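ok new one. same drill as before - structure tokens go in, u give me an amino acid for every spot. 497 of them this time. try not to just spam alanines like last time pls lmao
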């Protein structure tokens, strides 16, 4: 005995059922312009079948998250997970037969395609013992299976299109019944649309879309004009699961709704001309343009930068200098100054050491209390905010890890380690570049990749491009970046391709 659910009624008021078991075997294509009731139809189908079959919904606009309020659907916000984690969730969805809504709202189009592709591919690759029947609904299918290359990246388009093709062409044997909905048939890849045997065609106005809809419904071209006359919520149905001949149905009511809803006309507020003038132009002085903070006052002695010959001349006379304790205090004081000096961040190691030596002499030290190698290490510790006492106690493990790296990477690693120890947001690539003393963001990306290749750090990036970095040997991990950093060209700073 087959199981049927009620979609709505025909013009005579008779019920318009759809055979659920037949639908699982033959797939469904829904088409309709924006405002035709396409999402309403999907919602009705999902609500009526929720108790009978597992449901997996790819939701690019967050329209179906409200299903979780009345049914057992779990909402997964894809932006909070990496590509590998999304694939892992898909594997568990098949294994444990959980109905979910994969919410792609808020992601860039490229990220939506990559996420949907990874998720669908993992559903498809489930082992044979997990091939339970499931409905896979993909809204705005023309986005994930475009007929032609558009403005999205070619790699993302290829992955998503291949996943959609697998779903519609080969998903039936694996228990996956594809239900795809699109606003434009002409923009949907033909090899994806052609695999559906059931069709629900809503209102559309473009000739090319009406012609394709008429072909799929087996109608003559002159009959296609009636598609323009359909009302909101009316669809022409055809297929083994709904009707052997094209049949007009009106979709029934639903229990859940979208979070947004359509635009509603409302009268404009009544205000006098003077009130409108005040609302727009009064009190503008209370929102001043942000000004850069004033530059810190530079001590007079720092303005004096002797040339190398002058340094040599000063070295000829070496008065008695401070003792060891005083030298250590002078060294710590100078290092603290150099950490706060933005200009020092842009200079290389040799120039920094020369500056350090000059500052030491200006404080009465006949020679620098630290050799060049020891200075580089001390500056790295100072930039990470690690005192000498801390370096021998709670930071000993991190410093031991840093000793396994080339000397020039110690400061960069300790900056990451400081954020990881405090669970602070992951440092941006611009911050790491300043600490390393370079303006090449590509070089810093390669250095971060080197640290990961050595097993010192482990990175994780979600679909918003936000990154966190962990240090496995210490059990430390940074928080997620507050916002994806940007390069000087406006591209995502962590992007490696």
């Amino acid at each position: 005995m087959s199981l049927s659910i009620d979609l709505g009624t025909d013009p005579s008021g008779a019920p318009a059922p759809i055979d659920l078991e037949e639908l699982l075997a033959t797939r469904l294509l829904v088409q309709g312009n924006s405002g035709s009731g396409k999402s309403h139809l999907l919602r009705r189908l999902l609500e009526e079948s929720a108790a009978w079959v597992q449901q997996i919904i790819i939701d690019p606009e967050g329209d179906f998250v409200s299903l979780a309020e009345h049914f057992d659907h779990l909402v997964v916000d894809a932006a909070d997970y990496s590509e590998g984690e999304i694939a892992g969730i898909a594997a568990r969805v098949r294994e444990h037969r959980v109905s979910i809504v994969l919410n792609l709202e808020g992601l860039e189009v490229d990220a939506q395609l990559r996420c949907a592709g990874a998720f669908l591919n993992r559903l498809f690759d489930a082992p044979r013992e997990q091939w339970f029947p499931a409905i896979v609904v993909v809204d705005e299918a023309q986005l994930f299976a475009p007929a032609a290359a558009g403005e999205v990246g070619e790699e993302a388009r290829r992955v998503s299109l291949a996943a959609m093709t697998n779903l519609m062409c080969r998903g039936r044997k694996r228990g996956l019944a594809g239900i795809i909905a699109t606003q434009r048939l002409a923009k949907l890849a033909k090899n994806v649309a052609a695999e559906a045997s059931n069709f629900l065609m809503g209102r559309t106005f473009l000739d090319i879309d009406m012609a394709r809809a008429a072909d799929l419904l087996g109608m003559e071209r002159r009959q296609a004009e009636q598609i323009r006359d359909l009302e909101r919520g009316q669809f022409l149905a055809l297929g083994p699961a709904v009707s052997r001949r094209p049949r007009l149905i009106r979709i029934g009511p639903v229990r859940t709704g979208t979070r947004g809803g359509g635009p509603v006309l409302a009268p404009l507020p009544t205000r006098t001309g003077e009130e409108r003038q005040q609302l727009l132009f009064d009190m503008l002085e209370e929102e001043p343009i942000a000004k850069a903070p004033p530059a810190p006052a530079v001590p007079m002695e720092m303005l004096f930068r002797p040339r190398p010959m002058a340094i040599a001349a000063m070295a000829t006379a070496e008065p008695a200098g401070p003792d060891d304790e005083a030298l250590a205090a002078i060294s710590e004081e100078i290092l603290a100054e150099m950490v706060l000096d933005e200009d020092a961040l842009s200079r290389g190691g040799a120039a920094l050491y020369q500056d350090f030596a000059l500052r030491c002499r200006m404080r009465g030290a006949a020679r620098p209390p630290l050799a060049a190698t020891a200075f580089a290490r001390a500056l790295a510790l100072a930039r990470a905010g690690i005192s000498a006492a801390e370096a021998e106690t709670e930071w000993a493990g991190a410093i031991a890890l840093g000793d396994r790296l080339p000397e020039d990477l110690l400061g960069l690693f300790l900056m990451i380690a400081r954020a990881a120890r405090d669970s602070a947001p992951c440092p941006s690539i611009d911050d790491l570049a300043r600490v390393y003393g370079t303006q090449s963001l590509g070089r810093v990306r390669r250095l971060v990749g080197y640290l990961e290749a050595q097993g010192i750090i482990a990175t994780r990036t979600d679909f918003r491009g936000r990154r966190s970095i962990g240090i496995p040997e210490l059990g430390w991990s940074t928080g997620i970046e507050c916002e994806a950093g940007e390069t000087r060209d406006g591209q995502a700073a962590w992007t490696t391709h």
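The longest strand covers residues 243-251. and btw The chain has two domains: 4-251, 300-312+322-477.
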